[in-house]
Every structure is written in C-alpha cells, then in structure tokens.
From TrEMBL:
This is Major Facilitator Superfamily protein. It is found in: Cell membrane. One of its GO terms (cellular component) is plasma membrane. Signal peptide: none annotated.
Length: 401
C-alpha cells in the first residue's frame, strides 16, 4: 500500500519538508558555488569560455541525465536512503576537487561524479514533499519553501567559498566545504533515525499498465510548462555562468564577484517564495509573463550599468531570475494525475536541468566568437520565448486524480 504523511501528525509533515529542504540547500549550494570557482580555474588552467562552459555542462549534464534513473533506483533502496547517499557523493566530489589542481581532466571527471550525486535530490525531495502536503495551496507553499531552501544554499555556499578563497587556496576551500556537506548528511540521518520519510514510488509495470508514459496528447499543459522550464533554465544557467566574466570586464575583484552572486542568490531566495505566493494569488500565467519580461530587462541593465550600480541592482535581478522556477516547480503536481506525479517530476527536472547543462557550453562557444556582452544580450532575448509558450496553460491548473 502506498504510504505518505497525509494522515500523520503535523510534526511528520515538517520533518519531510525539513529533510527535502536541507538536501536542496546543500545540493543547490554546491551547484552554484562552482560559479565562484570558474574564474579561478580559467586563470590556473588557461581555459577558454567554451571549456568553462563544458565544465559546467559536465556537472549539470550528469545531474540532469541521472534524474530518471535515480527515480527508478529509489524503488530498490528507498527514496530517503538514496537522497542521503546523493548528498554524501556530491560532498565527496567537492572534497576531492582539491586534489585536481594539476589536471583539468581530473577536475572534469570529479565534477561529473558530483553531478550524479546531485541528480537524486530534485525528483525525490519534490515527491516526498508533494505526498506530505495534499492541499493545493499547502503543497504549493511547501514546495515554495523547499525552493527557498535551495536559494539559501546558493546564497550561503558561494558566499562562503568567495570569503574563504580570500584566506586560503581554492583547494583548501573545496576540502572545507566538502566536509561540511558530509556533516549535514550525518545530521539528516540522525534527525530521521526513528522514522524515515517514505514516498509513493509505483512499480514500473503498474505505470505501464495504467497509462504508459506521459505523452503529448492529453498532457499538453504539462509539456508546455516543461518547455517554459527549459527556456527559463537555459537563461538562468547561461547568465550566471558568464556573469563573473562580465563583472571582470567591469573591473570586479573575486571578492566583489562573490558579493554580487550572493546578492543575486539572496534576491532569488526571496523571489522564489514571493513568486510562489504570487502564483497562488494572481495565477501562473501572469506570474510567468511578468517575471520573464523583468528578467530580460534586468539582464540588459546589468550589461549597461557600471560596477557599483550592478552591485546595488543584484538583488532585484535575483528576484526575477529565480522567481519563475518556483512557479513552474509548484505547478507540476496540478497538471498530472497523482500516480504520474513521480514520473512527471523526473521528466520535468531532466528537461530543465538538462537545458541548464547544455546552455553554458552553447553560450561559451558564442562568447568565444562574439564576446561576453553580445552573448549575454542573446541570453536576455531568449528569455522572451517563454511568453507564447504560456498559451496552452490557460485554464489548465486543476488537480486530477
């Protein structure tokens, strides 16, 4: 029989949300911490923008590619156990980055391993939380909180990395932060030593017999939402990967770059929560259209503004740059039947994170040919492609089954 926390005391709901949020905190924090390392690695290994983009693709590509396999593997060893194992694997990869100082090839291999560890977090945490909160507004609020935790990780770990690099070598910093991740995994285990979160992960044969895979026909709104997520993720990852180099052209030091990223991620934490609430009150369509238009305008502003103005403006771009994703993630459960929810989350995260994995390599090639500024302008314009994709979503946000 499928198990969830819908009939358990409120404390059990909170424990599920806390577990998923902590996993999101550390994994997203490690993912975006790489933006601080990229300029350092470029200088040490004499890398081109294409090669920097490829390093990002190695991490995010394995992260995206193992979403669906991770969901299937959870049937065998358990969602919670796999979630903690993923945190440990990514933390170990961060720790061993410090031993790759002599070889960019080894650096790339370790990043790929770290991406595999990070791949389990999004689909499993989202499903655990979705099953724990059954009401539409309660679920959307819980998923918004979950997303905020990820953005707090994006704020804390890149900022910590930038600060520590002012005191120590980047190799030592990777050791310190890798150990921190392992410690957090131990805390999650101890907090759940008596009752571990369980999730409804249906057998594959049950899914095939019931409905087959999520096809376009009958699920147009879900696939439209996923396409919006693809464009939004490509915009976000492309912009953030090359923002440090744009700031360098404006004369920013490493500490200043770390500050700007921290302010963007701080704005992102607030933006995900605010935009999630905005979607509840005003609707998904209006929220997506507004945030994407503002994203384009804000990216143009970051190009035009001088460095000191860009620093002040950073939290605003963080709000709109990351706000859309909270609206999209929280809408997935409303567009598919409950028994398809696990598959839908896995597909959605595979597509969106995969897009974010590929875009840095594509934009890196563009940057080597036309320069950073022109490339970032292209990123801003691409964000507007999401607006016509909202049409199939009209009047589709209903819970089915």
């Amino acid at each position: 029989m499928a198990e969830s926390y819908t009939g358990e005391p409120l404390a059990a709901h909170k424990k599920v949300l806390w577990t998923g949020s902590m996993a999101h905190f550390i994994q997203d924090g490690f993912t975006d911490m790489l933006y601080v390392f990229f300029p350092v690695w470029q200088a040490q290994f004499a890398l081109s923008f294409t090669e920097i983009g490829f390093l990002k693709t190695l991490f995010s590509g394995t992260l995206a590619g193992f979403q669906v396999p991770a969901s299937s593997f959870a049937r065998r060893i358990g969602a919670f156990e796999l979630l903690v194992s993923g945190i440990l694997l990514t933390s170990a990869a961060v720790f061993f980055l410090g031993y790759s100082a002599g070889s960019p090839i080894m650096l790339g291999c370790i990043l790929a391993v770290g991406g595999i560890g990070a791949s389990v977090q999004h689909p499993l945490s989202s499903l655990l939380i979705s099953n724990a909160y059954t009401g539409i507004n309660a679920r959307r609020t819980a998923l918004s909180t979950f997303n905020v935790a990820g953005d707090i990780g994006k704020l804390v770990l890149p900022g910590a990395a930038a600060y520590l690099m002012m005191q120590y070598s980047w190799m030592s910093v990777s050791h310190i932060l890798g150990l921190f991740g392992m410690g957090l995994a131990a805390v999650i285990l101890l907090n759940n030593r008596e009752t571990r979160p369980k999730t409804n992960v249906p057998e594959a044969k049950t899914l095939r017999a019931a409905d087959g895979y999520l096809k376009w026909k009958g699920n147009e709104a879900f696939w439209s939402l996923s396409t919006i997520g693809i464009v939004d993720s490509a915009t976000r990852m492309g912009f953030l990967t090359f923002l440090p180099f744009l700031l360098q052209e404006k004369g920013a030091a490493l500490s200043t770059t770390g500050l700007v990223l921290s302010l963007i991620f701080a704005g992102g934490a607030a933006g995900k929560f605010v935009c999630g609430m905005m979607a509840v009150k005003f609707g998904v369509l209006r929220s997506v259209i507004i945030t994407e238009i503002m994203t384009t305008l804000c990216i143009f502003a970051m190009i035009v503004f001088p460095l000191h103005a860009a620093i002040v403006f950073s939290p605003i771009i963080g709000i709109v740059l990351n706000g859309t994703s909270s609206v999209l993630y929280g809408s997935v459960p409303e567009l598919v039947v409950e028994k398809r929810r696990q598959q839908a989350f896995a597909i959605f995260y595979t597509l969106t994170i995969g897009s974010g994995a590929i875009s840095p390599s594509v934009y890196g090639i563009i940057s080597d040919f036309v320069g950073i500024k022109v490339c970032v302008i292209i990123v801003a314009v691409v964000a507007l492609l999401t607006i016509p994709l909202t049409v199939p979503l009209k009047n589709k946000f209903l819970v089915k089954g």
